[in-house]
Design brief:
By secondary structure, the chain is an alpha/beta fold. It is built from 13 helices and 10 strands.
């Protein structure tokens, strides 16, 4: 169809040098006309090519990350026939220099793509840019980075915050009071967006409620215990608590140790054994969550597409904002 040899077509398809632009255009025009779709799986099998992906996750967040790690292992098995290998590295989310150093150590010789869950800091942003310049694909995971726009994996965190605020206001239709907001780190973009959405709906629709400044645990159980005991000691009219971090166990453990006001409403994020138990015993009123299996599978699919220079089906990759109550657990 293009009027060239099979060898020339092969060079164009594989992006090799030695083909004039005019010839490349002819081959691409023929591809467009006949609707040719390259069989990537067959090509990879012929070349014995393996996709090498790395998930960079924070050290803290044990139960939620345990769910993510379990799903990564599932994906490793499920995608074996597709020649996908997925490894995991844990980093201190509160040390952007260590995160940047890890990303700086990665090269296209050892990894094709990296899914990164890390707070957005100048050091991490620069490290991601340099990583991409070296030819390694970077995909923000669960928490987005500004420089990546829509190319990331995770639910709409602003919408998740709006959902939490709407539930909080509906659960407290009359009772006036203050709302405690607890995060691991407000540097994380997912936390910032959840906080923004929560404030938006509380301020606009529920003026009888007032959200207090964010309290940060930095993933520390001891710090969570201190700040939770302090907030309840100094604020006598707390009507609700919003735990917007991905791991609720430390704040919930601290809350269980204080004398709670009557009929206080508590909303948290992510389905874990801890939040399930808290829903069952009535400590938690609702959990805003996202499917960890869908998160991991979407990350693998998107990294494969980036590596192959293809696009993914947008509707398949959309991560839903889900609400879990005791009644639908």
């Amino acid at each position: 169809m293009a009027g060239v040899s099979r060898a020339t077509v092969d060079r164009v398809l594989n992006g090799r040098e030695g083909v004039k632009k005019k010839t490349v255009d002819k081959v691409n025009a023929a591809i467009e006309e006949i609707g040719f779709v390259r069989n990537i799986a067959a090509a990879n099998l012929a070349k014995s090519r393996t996709y090498r992906f790395l998930f960079v996750l924070p050290e803290s967040g044990d139960q939620f990350h345990g769910e993510i790690l379990r799903r990564i292992n599932e994906a490793q098995t499920a995608y074996t026939a597709d020649m996908v290998k997925a490894a995991v590295r844990l980093v201190d989310q509160n040390d952007p220099f260590k995160i940047a150093a890890l990303l700086a150590s990665l090269s296209p010789d050892v990894v094709d793509g990296v899914a990164i869950m890390a707070p957005e800091t100048p050091q991490v942003r620069d490290a991601i840019l340099r990583l991409q310049e070296r030819g390694v694909h970077a995909l923000p995971f669960i928490s987005n980075q500004t420089l990546n726009g829509d190319q990331w994996v995770g639910m709409d965190n602003h919408a998740a915050g709006v959902t939490a605020g709407t539930l909080m206001g509906r659960f407290l239709p009359i009772k006036a009071g203050k709302l405690a907001v607890i995060a691991d780190s407000i540097l994380s973009r997912d936390s910032l967006e959840r906080r923004s959405g929560f404030d938006q709906v509380i301020n606009s629709e529920f003026p009888h409620l007032a959200a207090l400044p964010s309290l940060e645990t930095y993933g520390s159980q001891d710090r969570a215990k201190r700040i939770v005991s302090e907030i309840f000691r100094h604020q006598g009219d707390i009507a609700g608590v919003y735990i917007l971090s991905s791991e609720a166990r430390a704040p919930l453990s601290a809350i269980w140790k204080v004398q709670l006001p009557h009929n206080i409403v508590i909303i948290a994020h992510e389905r874990t054994p801890c939040t399930e138990n808290a829903l069952v015993d009535g400590t938690l009123d609702a959990v805003i969550t996202q499917d960890p299996g869908h998160l991991v599978r979407s990350a693998v699919r998107k990294l494969r597409a980036l590596t192959d220079g293809r696009s993914t089906l947008q509707s398949q990759e959309k991560i839903r904002v889900e609400i879990i109550l005791k009644t639908n657990l």
